[in-house]
Amino acid sequence: MSVPSSAKLPEGPRRRVGADWPFYLGLILLGGSYVALILITLLADVAFVAIETIGHGHGDAVRQVLVSEEVWYATKLSVLSSTATTVLSLWVAVPIGYLLSRFKFRGRALLDAILDIPIVLPPLVIGVSLLILFKTGGIVSAWIAERTGIELAMPVEFPYAIPGVILAQFLVAAAFAVRAMRLSFDEIPFRKEEVALTLGCTRGQAFWRVVLPEARGGLLAAATVTWARSLGEFGPVLVFAGATPKRTEVLPTSVFLQFSVGDLIGAVTISLGMVLIAVVVLVVVRVFGHRDLSGRALG
Amino acid sequence: MIELADVGVVSGGFSLSGVSFHVPRGAYAVLMGRTGSGKTTILEAICGLKRVVAGEIRLAGENVTRLKAAERGIGFVPQDGALFRSMSVREHLEFALEIRGWTRAQRDARVAELAAKVGVEHLLARGVVGLSGGETQRVALGRALSFRPAILCLDEPLSALDDESRQEMIELLKRIQRETGVTALHVTHNRGEAERLADVWLRLEDGAVRDATPGAGGSTNARMQKAE
After folding, report:
1. Residue B13 confidence (pLDDT)
2. Residue B219: pLDDT over 70
């Protein structure tokens, strides 16, 4: 009987393998194309304003925007409303994120799907739906007043008012905060809470003293995402809160208003201002948050 | 004393029923069994972390089956330490005491004593990120012992350690158990640990726990009771 042919295989010449560089090149080209697109888009904004002001002597258009009271009001409102929205969002995102991360219950998948609605719904539709909500609310409360004589009134005005700006931002941004918090809680092993329980904690104590401090990085990430999202929220704010200058005009609205009257330089200038604000806030949060975290965790 | 009588536990798709065994007061029991046999589930049931669906768990004669984990007073050392990243080593040692409302002075005294006992005095001010495996388990052990529990449950506490740290931890566990008289239940699949530590060998096989103490003819519990 002959020796099986497979026995000869290891004796053959050393197998040559192909080069690895095409793989790395592919990674760099595919990934790099997107990063480059982001960067050249921003650079184009800067270049456009520079060329228009210095090259074509259109500095007035930029100056007009920078001294515009309406734009400064919009800046203030944008920063303040985004901050308020972020605080409100975290208050709902922490409990919902924790619930989804830790508990298996009936209707969990449904809850998960409901929380996706603000993310997948077209922003304009959210604005319209909010308007309809308050219209219907008005009809219902009028009906109740007619039957019972009890006058139900909102403590504050929402449509076409500042609370409306915040509500419109909140409805969308909170969904992103929930996602971020859930991921953050998912990363903290439940074992730690169980240990806290054996050490004498109630569920609440284990949460406040062990889980939440450990989720500080996640809270920061959720806050950042929510804030950035709120700063850029346009559709729902425009539809639900309107675009009244020095009342409900936020920066994205300003960009849209400038654009709609054909003032491209003004629109781009405000856009760059928003980029600047976002970058400053992100850097401040990173630096502040990092110091806060590393001070304790690494001692 | 730890006593399980016909205990049934359900954990996800996994269940155990009719589990009975008993560990005499002050004994060091090692519970062995294959991976996936349910050793940890039994430990969790004793600690109050898994709901018991049948039978009774008694600790020092008291039926604790329906008590919350926090009310059972068991020191729990989990597999990889499960330390709290936001706390320093000192804060770990005093956490249970703070929850119990001890004063600053009482906590300081206890922390000093504990740190010496488990050998982490030089680490007290540090955070827990970057501690070695051995250091991590010392902190976890100190945290579990801080409130002077009568019972200590350890879930594979040495599995992630290198040989040298493992030997040190074994010595430490033996010494601490001797000094404090705590009743220990140590889950492992490592026979060497059992040989070094166990007064009582328990074996979990096919869903049943039996006494497997060498040379005791299966009647270790009786022997230990006489020794008391």
Report:
1. 81
2. no
How much of chain A exceeds pLDDT 90, in percent? 70
Domains of chain B, first to last:
2-227 (3.40.50.300)
Among A194, A201, A213, the residue with its CB nearest the CB of B99 is A201
Residue of A nearest to B94 (CA): A199
In the sheet with B2-11, reading across from the earlier edge strand, the strands are B14-23, B2-11, B52-59, B62-63
Report the phi/psi class of residue A273: left, alpha or beta, with left for phi > 0 and alpha for psi in -120 to 50: alpha
Domains and CATH numbers, chain A: 37-293 (1.10.3720.10)
Query: What's the confidence (pLDDT) of residue A10?
Result: 60
Mean confidence (pLDDT) of chain A:
89
List of chain A residues whose C-beta atoms are within 8 Å of the C-beta of residue B13: none
- What ipTM was reported for this prediction? 0.92
